[in-house]
Design goal:
Layout (H helix, E strand, L loop, with lengths): L1 H26 L16 H8 L1 H33 L3 H11 L1 H4 L2 H14 L6 H24 L4 H9 L4 H29 L3 H6 L6 H6 L6 H40 L4 H19 L2 E5 L3 H19 L3 H44 L3 H55 L4 H23 L1 H38 E5 L2 H32 L14 H29 L4 E6 L5 H11 L3 E6 L2 H7 L7 E2 L3 H9 L19 H6 L18 H8 L12 H4 E13 L3 H11 L3 H10 L10 H8 L4 E4 L2 H13 L7 H12 L8 E4 L2 H7 L5 E5 H11 L15 H4 L9 E3 L3 E2 L5 E2 L3 E8 L6 H13 L1 H8 L6 H7 L10 H4 L30 H19 L1
Parallel strand pairs: 3-4, 3-5, 7-8, 7-9
Antiparallel strand pairs: 1-2, 5-13, 6-9, 6-10, 6-13, 11-12
Helix pairs in contact: 1-12, 2-12, 3-7, 3-9, 3-20, 7-9, 8-9, 13-19, 14-18, 15-16, 15-18, 16-17, 17-18, 30-31, 30-39, 31-39, 32-33, 36-37
Length: 1001
């Protein structure tokens, strides 16, 4: 395994990086809507992308901001780098340290800091603040990219330019910027990329501007058209890289061609081949013969094999062996020369010693005598060493001569034995081998070991070089012999003579064409070339056309982006809505119908919407119920005139009496819709002005979508047994639940979630503070709203005691739908609309609610009477104190800002959304407030037909509204929606953060 990772670690890293991109590309062509199921190949999401007006507007905004901020950042960063290069190194280091702070600082800190600066400066958040923010974090990237390159500028070039009379501006244009060009291009690419995909800083400083990252972040869930956008972006990047590399290769080939033209080697190889062929043909004509070819296949095979062998042997140069032998020869020669130099060095040391002795005899200076004495001692030490080495060499030579004499005597004795004794053939061979070995040993002794080795090395070198030559020579000789058999010369006939003349003319024509081409290329690429005056031969236009072309392309791109941005930001209506809360095609339909432009903004929470109101004004918004109350109490909302709305609203008489607006749209001619009775009753009881009780949620808002919280159970046998044991469900009730999908709500308690967590089951919860605390509120006090400090503290203790901190309890955002849809849970708390979508994923249905080509196809996949796969229920259990555990109902509502400047168009848009209630609910997957839309979507054959009981919120098993069970102290039906309780809500959120922090820890 270790060897595998060592050999493939780079491939594994590349796979880790690129496999997610490949998956995204594949699923951008998926006909389905999730990565959990493959529905076949389709281009539907690319079509949806081009129809998505808000998404395309966000892309245009990102491109415009990235382009402008990159240009300005380059101007500032390059100028700053050039200025710092003139400073002392210590000053440069200090300023670069300051410039690097934004790079190492957390983006969220930078974003909040910039937001505070813009607020203090009283700037309106929008395109100006967004570009300024992007410039602020792009300049350091430009600076750290350009500065190292600037340090490589040769100061002698600047001095030469000054000597030639160049001023500072000319030095900048002609010397500095050409050197910095690669760094400037790299800095521009980095700045553009950082700006295009920035999210955090854009989120805090963008105001009315939504770039790509912000748009995707605020989506309720990632739609596949985002995969299509990512795929197209990857394709553009790959195309850009390929184009750049192709241009670089072309430029390199042109430079190579120019160099060959200057050296007169362009097409020289081809020209030589043609001339050689021409010479052969002319030789045949002059010799009155024609070369023909043998038809013997075996001769041709042998000939080709010989050519291949010659080629291989020629390529075999024995360089490695020769180099090794030459190194050995060098070492041996060095050793021999070193020994020879001992005698010369001995002679020099002797002379030096005699000279020093003479100087000592003559001098009377004590200091000089001491110095000479030290030198004399060093020379004596050297002379002693040399004498010892020379003595050793002489002794070695004497020993070698003595040994050589012994070897000679042994050789003589062996030869005498060989001559006088009668020996067998085997014994004679052994004696001869021994005599030969001793003769070699004698030669080695007499020559010296090093000299002998040197001679052998030189002989081996010569042998290798000769061997290679002899092999090539032999193979060439065989090849020449074969050529005489293959290439047969025959006398010319009239026919072959004409053919030979024609071939010569063709070759000559090819030579002339090739020469003309070379001449044309020379005149084109290197006209009047002179090495000393090349730079002055071209005109200014010829030298600058590339820069002018790039400038024109940049100006054209900037002009197009500016026009597109202006057109997309000249709008008549500003709308703020939750991410993925409307089919983007409906926005385009409204714009075309009324010939207006809509600035459609998205957000991910009520708190985000509230914070945006400090920096931006909407005409229409879609806050939740409790945020509507908060905004109304702060006098930010307009009282609605139901005379101008296509809603049958008998409750709105009081509102009509207080408004004097005209019926602008002649609504009497249009069919009015009716809202769901349960929702109307709930919202009508939601008092906003608590003093006189005359205003409620419906006075300020129109319901957009609504729903409630449900408990969802994965119907495994273990979970079914758990329901029997802990909640007291009978076998008959479990069987009924399996058939209908609906649990007996009179036995289902929110406490089952805590019991499941304590039993080690997987519990998936909606990650919202109020929803989490509503569980405890229902269990402890039978109400979703905690209205005292004591109630919040008790709820917090309930949640903290072996519940939220359990390892298998997960807090989920939008991923809750996929986790439940994939069956990765046992018990879950989720919105009824999310439960519907999770069931559809689990059932393998097409969950695209956007009106795509596959809508309704799931009806053919499953029977219309097939029940919901998961078990669900809304607790409606009666407690010992006579009160009922119920559920919480939420409603997101359309409201109009009091500062809206387009109220007439805002009413038109509300009516447009009311008319599209069915499409909106189908796309988002959440319950519509319009009664007719609810009935239509739950009819057989429609998308919620299998989930009718789950689609309708806040009803019991009989279809009666469960909120009628509980009464307050005055006997009124208690409100099930969350209330706006400023101080208590803040305390609740603080407790929730502590719970989450404890779970993470």
């Amino acid at each position: 395994m270790k060897k595998f990772f060592r050999a493939n670690y780079f491939a594994l890293i590349m796979a880790f990086i690129y496999i997610p991109i490949v998956i995204m590309i594949i699923f951008s062509f998926n006909a389905g809507t999730t990565v959990s199921t493959w529905r076949g190949w389709s281009l539907r999401w690319y079509e949806d992308f081009f129809k998505n007006s808000p998404f395309i507007k966000s892309i245009i905004t990102s491109l415009f901001v990235a382009f402008v901020s990159t240009i300005i950042s380059l101007l500032i960063g390059v100028a700053a780098a050039i200025g710092l290069s003139r400073c002392r190194r210590n000053t440069q280091r200090k300023w670069m340290g300051i410039a690097n702070i934004p790079l190492i600082n957390a983006d969220v800190v930078t974003a909040v800091s910039l937001m505070m600066v813009f607020l203090v400066a009283n700037l309106r958040f929008g395109i100006f603040t967004l570009i300024m923010a992007h410039i602020s974090f792009n300049v350091p990237y430009v600076l750290i990219t350009v500065m190292p390159r600037l340090r490589k500028v040769d100061h002698s070039l600047l001095e030469a330019g000054e000597d030639l009379g160049a001023n500072n501006w000319q030095l900048l244009i002609r010397v500095i910027l050409p050197v910095l060009k690669p760094a400037i291009i790299a800095a521009a690419a980095i700045a553009f990329a950082m700006s295009f995909d920035d999210f955090i800083i854009s989120y805090f400083t963008g105001g009315s501007q939504t770039n790509v990252s912000t748009y995707i972040y605020t989506m309720k869930k990632i739609r596949p058209y985002v995969f299509a956008f990512g795929t197209m972006l990857v394709a553009i990047i790959i195309l850009g890289i390929l184009t750049w590399n192709a241009f670089a290769l072309y430029k390199q080939s042109q430079e190579t061609k120019v160099e060959k033209l200057r050296n007169k080697t362009y097409k020289s190889k081809r020209m030589a081949e043609l001339k050689k062929e021409l010479l052969l043909l002319e030789a045949q004509k002059n010799g009155n013969y024609k070369t023909t070819y043998s038809t013997n296949i075996f001769l041709w095979l042998k000939y080709e094999c010989l050519k291949f062998r010659i080629k291989m042997v020629s390529a075999k140069t024995y360089d490695k062996k020769i180099t090794r032998l030459e190194w050995k020869r060098y070492k041996l020669r060095s050793q021999i020369n070193k020994e020879k130099r001992y005698y010369d060095r001995q002679e020099l040391a002797t002379k030096r010693l005699a000279k020093l002795n003479a100087q000592l005899d003559k001098t009377n200076d004590v200091h000089k005598a001491a110095k000479l004495t030290l030198q004399k001692e060093k020379v004596e030490e050297r002379l002693t060493f040399l004498n010892e080495e020379i003595e050793a060499l002489e002794n070695r030579e004497d020993a070698a001569l003595h040994k050589a004499e012994k070897v000679e005597q042994e050789i003589s004795a062996l030869k005498w034995n060989l001559a006088t004794e009668e020996l067998s053939k085997k014994e004679s061979l052994a004696l001869n081998r021994k005599i030969k070995r001793l003769e070699i040993e004698k030669i080695e002794i007499l020559e010296g070991k090093n000299m002998h080795k040197l001679r052998l090395v030189v002989e081996r070198l010569r042998e290798l070089q000769d061997k290679n030559y002899n092999v090539i020579f032999g193979l060439t000789d065989q090849k020449n012999h074969l050529e005489k058999q293959i290439f047969i010369n025959k006398p010319l006939t009239k026919k072959t003579s004409r053919k030979l003349t024609s071939d010569i003319q063709k070759i000559d024509h090819k030579i002339n064409l090739l020469a003309a081409k070379v001449k044309k290329e020379t005149l084109k690429l290197v006209p009047n070339y002179e090495a000393s005056s090349e730079g002055h031969a071209k005109s200014w236009l010829a030298r600058s056309w590339k820069m002018l072309g790039a400038l024109l392309i940049g100006l054209a791109a900037f002009s197009g982006l500016t026009v597109a941005y202006v057109l997309n930001n000249t709008y008549n209506l500003v709308i703020g809505n939750w991410g993925e809360y409307i089919d983007p095609a409906l926005i385009g339909e409204f714009e075309r119908e009324y010939k207006v432009r809509v600035n459609y903004q998205e957000y991910d929470s009520n708190e985000t919407l509230y914070n945006k109101l400090y920096t931006f004004n909407y005409d229409l918004m879609v806050p939740s119920d409790y945020m509507v109350k908060k905004l109304a109490l702060e006098d930010r909302l307009e009282l609605l005139n139901y005379n101008l709305l296509n809603i049958d609203a008998p409750w709105a008489k009081r509102v009509e009496a207080k408004t004097n607006g005209a019926n602008l749209f002649d609504n009497d001619k249009q069919e009015k819709v009716t809202l769901d009775d349960n929702l109307v009753k709930l919202l009508a009881n939601y008092e906003i002005d608590g003093n006189d009780g005359k205003k409620n949620l419906l006075d300020y808002s129109v319901p957009y979508l609504w729903g409630d919280l449900v408990i969802v159970v994965n119907p495994t046998q273990a979970n079914l047994d758990f329901l029997k044991t802990k909640a007291g469900f009978t076998d008959e009730e479990i069987a009924t639940a399996i058939n209908t999908g609906e649990l007996n709500q009179t036995k289902l308690s929110w406490d089952i979630l805590k019991q499941a967590a304590q039993a080690g089951k997987r519990v998936a919860l909606n990650n919202d503070p109020k929803n989490i605390f509503a569980i405890a509120g229902q269990v402890l006090f039978q109400k979703p709203n905690l209205e005292t400090d004591h109630e919040i503290e008790q709820a917090n203790q309930y949640l903290a005691n072996d519940f939220i901190n359990k390892p298998k309890v997960s807090l989920n955002n939008d991923e809750l739908v996929d986790n439940v849809g994939q069956g990765r849970f046992d018990f879950a708390m989720m919105y009824n609309g999310d439960a519907v979508e999770a069931n559809r994923i689990y059932n393998g249905e097409d969950v695209d609610n956007g009106g795509g080509d596959d809508d309704g196809d799931f009806a053919n996949a499953i029977a219309l009477d097939e029940p919901t796969k998961f078990l669900f229920g809304r607790p409606n259990i009666k407690m010992a104190n006579g009160r009922y555990q119920t559920t919480n109902v939420f409603s997101d509502n359309l409201v109009m800002s009091k500062t809206s400047h387009h109220k007439d168009l805002a009413y038109k848009f509300i009516n447009f959304l009311i008319s599209k209630a069915t499409d909106i609910s189908e796309y988002v997957g959440i319950t519509s407030p319009v009664a007719s839309a609810m009935d239509e979507l739950t009819q057989p054959g429609n998308i919620f037909s299998n989930y009718k009981r789950l689609y309708y919120p806040c009803v019991d098993a009989l279809g009666d509204p469960i909120y009628q069970q509980n009464k307050d102290k005055d006997g009124k039906e208690e409100l099930m929606a969350f209330k706006y309780l400023p101080r208590l809500d803040e305390k609740l959120v603080d407790y929730y953060n502590e719970l989450v922090a404890g779970k993470i820890g």
